[in-house]
Amino acid sequence: MKKWLLTLAMMTSIILAACSNDTKTTEDTASTPEAPAENTAVTINNQDFVIDYTEAPKKAISLNQHVTEIMLALGLEDSMVGTAYLDDEIYPPLQTAYEKVPVIAEQYPTKEQVINAEADFLYGGWSSAFNEKNIATREELKELGINTYLQNASTMINPKLQDIYGDIANIAKIFRVEERGEKLITQMKTDVEAITSQMGEVSTPLKVLVFDSGDKEVFTAAQNFMNELVTVSGGQNIFGDVDKTWTTVSKEAVVERAPEVIVIIDYGDTTAEQKIEFIKNDPALSTVPAVANNHFVILPLSAAAEGVRAADAIGILAKGFYPEKFN
Q1: Over 80: is that where the pLDDT of 38 sits?
Q2: Where in the sequence of the chain do the CATH 3.40.50.1980 domains occur?
């Protein structure tokens, strides 16, 4: 199965636009017009957890890959003392910056590792990052003098592209690199617009199943970010009416909704090709139109997350759904 990829030029343009050396800052639209000085407190309300940042963090740790890539895309590697929980290969334009930051844990670091790194800021991508089992609660970390931010777009029902832009703007504001944030967001919007313009109007969206995993049942996307990616790419997520982020459905429900395309989420020890073979050989799933037409699209998990690869993900999906529009 051929993986559709955007050009390296498009990938790199996002990063080059964000990593400008010009660090003059401006407030976002929800704040006053004047940009905060370096020693001026910035107040962030992150999921009802309010923190006053009296200065930009200097020893940050990113806890999941998609938020690591946001930090690096903003040129913040010199303000980081660690990264953790890499799902797959880092975004190629960010590889050099990534190599400058220590990997302190393959999955979540322990509280002791965080303290030993003298971290002053933790950036979590998933809600699992902050609890008594993994590292510590946000309240406990605050008592230790460690501020935290949890990606809004990754922890809500039915996130949109705009929610990712909001997270990027917040991180840029916390680190006093707002102009870089604005450039990154603008470039992402421009790249998404370039793809959707080339795709053109889709009168009847293709019915799409997102296949993460499953044997007896299917683990699929409901109203998580994949729902937004599929929609923007001219598809209709067949389980987009389920009021959850991810959900488990029966094979019979999949057959009943008759997907015309199956998006394979690629990660872990089971390859995308193995997932496709399973679907093709399953007595129930093999009967859907997508299998009859051999219409599969492979999307890396890191591209499916709420980060800087949104335009890449939309490009992969749109070209996979409607290859005739991109020839």
Answers
A1: no
A2: 8-188, 200-325
pLDDT of residue 87: 85
- The DSSP annotation for 183-234 comes to HHHHHHHHHHHHHHHHH---SSPEEEEEE-B-SSSEEEESSSHHHHHHHHTT
Tokens of 160: 């949109």
Strand intervals (E) in the chain: 42-46, 49-53, 60-62, 80-84, 103-105, 121-124, 147-150, 206-211, 218-221, 235-237, 246-249, 261-266, 296-300
| In this structure, CATH architecture of domain 200-325 | 3-Layer(aba) Sandwich (3.40)
Top CATH class, 8-188: alpha beta
Q: What angle do CA 43, 48, 49 make, to 5 degrees?
A: 60
* Residue-averaged pLDDT of the chain: 89
| Residue 92 C-beta-side C-alpha neighbours within 13 Å | 10
Q: Which amino acid is at 235?
A: G
Of 14, 95, 100, nearest to 308 by C-alpha is 14
Residue with tokens 């029902």: 157
- State the pLDDT at residue 7: 38
CA 118 to chain centre: 27
- Over residues 143-186, the pLDDT tens digits come to 999 999 999 999 999 999 999 999 999 999 999 999 999 999 99
Confidence band for 21, pLDDT divided at 50, 70 and 90: very low
pTM: 0.86
Contacts of 65 (CB under 8 A, 6+ apart): 85, 86, 87, 88, 90, 125, 302, 305, 307
Write out the two tokens for 241: 């009416």
Task: Give one DSSP letter per residue of 13-51, joined into a string.
Answer: HHHHHHT-S-------TTS-SSPPPTTS-EEEEETTEEE
- What pLDDT is recorded for position 88? 85
Residue 40's pLDDT is what?
Answer: 78
Q: Rg of the chain over CA atoms, in angstroms?
A: 20
